[in-house]
Amino acid sequence: MFGSLQDYQVKWIRPDVIAGLTVWAVLVPEALAYATIAGVPPVVGLYAAVPSLILYAAAGSSRHLVVGPMSATAALSAAIIAPLAGADGGKYIALSAVLAVATGIVGLLAGLIRLGFIASFISEPVLKGFIVGLALTIIIGQVPKLFGVKKSEGNFFEQAWGVVRHLGDTDWRTLAVGLSSLAVVLGFKRWLPLIPGSLLAVLLGIVAVAVFGLEDKGVEIVGHIQSGLPSVGLPGGVGFDDYVDLLGPAVGVLLIGFAEGLGAAKTYAAKSGYEIDANRELLGLGAANLGAGLGSGMVVNGSLSKTAVNGGAGAKSQVSGLVVAALTVLTLLFLTGLFEKLPEATLAAVVIAAVVELVDIPALRRLYGVWTERLGSIYGPAARADFAAAIAAMTGVLLFDTLPGLVIGIGVSMLLLLYRASRPHVAALAKQGSLWVDAERQPELTTLPDVVVVRVEAGLFFANADHVKDGIEALCTETTRLVVLDAETSPFVDVSAAEMLLQLRDTLGRKGIDLRVARDIGQFRDTLRQSSGAGGVVGIYPTVSEALADTEESR
Hints:
By secondary structure, the protein is α/β, with parallel strands linked by helices. Helix content is about 60%, strand content about 5%. It has 21 helices and 8 strands. Strands 4-3-5-6-7-8 form a 6-stranded mixed sheet. A two-stranded antiparallel ribbon has the order 1-2. The model has no long low-confidence stretch (mean pLDDT about 85).
């Protein structure tokens, strides 16, 4: 418990308290805003923040990660709960808490059985595309509040068309408040990042409502926010079946939240010189969600933006998170009334400003640049797969909504994994001094006229055996008399691939070409010798040079 606080130094108290105050100023308005994305009352975001901050500090491994409501998981929560709750507002709130509890249970179980590696199964391009699509969907969902017009239902494009159709109904006062708030948040983030622009915009919006009587002139406000601490315990009004129904979706919420939070945690751990334990991160995220659900809250995860604020303000440990939790409790007890006059347009501006940085078009442009740069190269297929995967995940979210988009993203990740595993690079080698290097990368080097030295940059198994066989055969010419497979970069081989090598030996033999294996290691050597007698009929040599020398001697 509280392992991240081990070796705590007294001199860290001051920077931790300052960082806690800074993060609190950002967290309060954003928690209110993210709760609206999840479709629950704004105060639910504050309910979720307190236990999640405390329990993550107790179970997580990062000294800097700030956990709380976030846009991606809030949007996922809304997509999951809306079809189940229908028009029943009370059930909607209860099921949102149930989803947090279910996510917490899944996270704790995953951490206990050490499934921290699962984050690797969503590739970075897919995660990037999913987050971009999600951010665009969140933004278009907030635009009607910014303009004071009716929100349309449907996917991203249907909602965007709805905004266009209702532009004539724009309330100019609402638009003025919204755009001014957006300018304040983005302006301070750009030029005065140490000042919490979100909190300043919220306070200015509240003042504007009070001074100019905007509520009576058609500007929508947040309205009543219940003060005091939330009830603690299992959500009421739901049954055991609801928990079971939400366990599956909870896995998706956990996967996205874990991947996003782990990235933030590793970034700041690398800067400060300590290690992140992925399994403890699962435990920390699970405990945080369980606490949020039992505290009448919503799903939570690690926040890159608030973690950046925390680190930038000088935080040294999770004491800063505990300070944020204490200040949030004070906010619930004494300051909720202040936020009741908050304009909905200002809240929408805070959301848009928070997620607009997630629309990482430069990252997609880089993926596209890699695609076009390598289109004709040996790595072209992999580069195309990266860009196509990102676009597929993004399009899935924009067209089919958040949850189907997540499923498409995970499916594309799995297909991308299988694609790359089944199509390793088969390189013809040329000698450079005492080394054998990729001839295509070193075109100035000459290769032997009747010998092909080849390297497969992956283990050999059933999924890539045919591709490797075809690749080696394609490198042979009419003058080729010997093929040497440099197996140093192939750490393993299965029975199917060993059979492939036997078939390749026979195919090449009919053309008068000898097949030899050099520098086989460990499991590769063992399987090759045990499978179908292949070891007895395929020449195995310690080095490429010895395989070639044996040919010269036989001549």
